[in-house]
């Protein structure tokens, strides 16, 4: 994570990983080998950045082998919004404006959203 050089003040980061290269979001069968955060990577982001939103290109921001610990780091450490299931195949690294439009669901802990990324 340190090598990404995410500067202080950056509030939202989308991670385009090997999940996109493998086209995992287009496959019908769930793939447990997807790229996601382990607890220590999530903790590093919480401790060393100002990020309030983490987006990733598969169905979970947390690695399959570390689901609960990674999610807890993001959700208990401070209020970080997790955006999962992004299709980022045509998105190049860079600075964008991100707008997330959630469905309003009463009593839900999560909901579907439509994300708009503007270059």
From TrEMBL:
What keywords were assigned to this record? Extracellular matrix, Secreted
Give the source's domain of life in one word: Eukaryota
What does the entry give for GO biological process? L-tryptophan catabolic process to kynurenine
Name where it's found: Secreted, Extracellular space, Extracellular matrix
Which GO terms fall under molecular function for this chain's record?
arylformamidase activity
Q: Name one Pfam family in it.
A: Cyclase
Q: Which InterPro entries match?
A: KFase/CYL, KFase_sf
Q: What protein family is recorded?
A: Belongs to the Cyclase 1 superfamily.
Q: Which PANTHER family match?
A: CYCLASE-LIKE PROTEIN 2
The protein's name: Kynurenine formamidase
Supply the source organism for this entry: Rhynchospora pubera
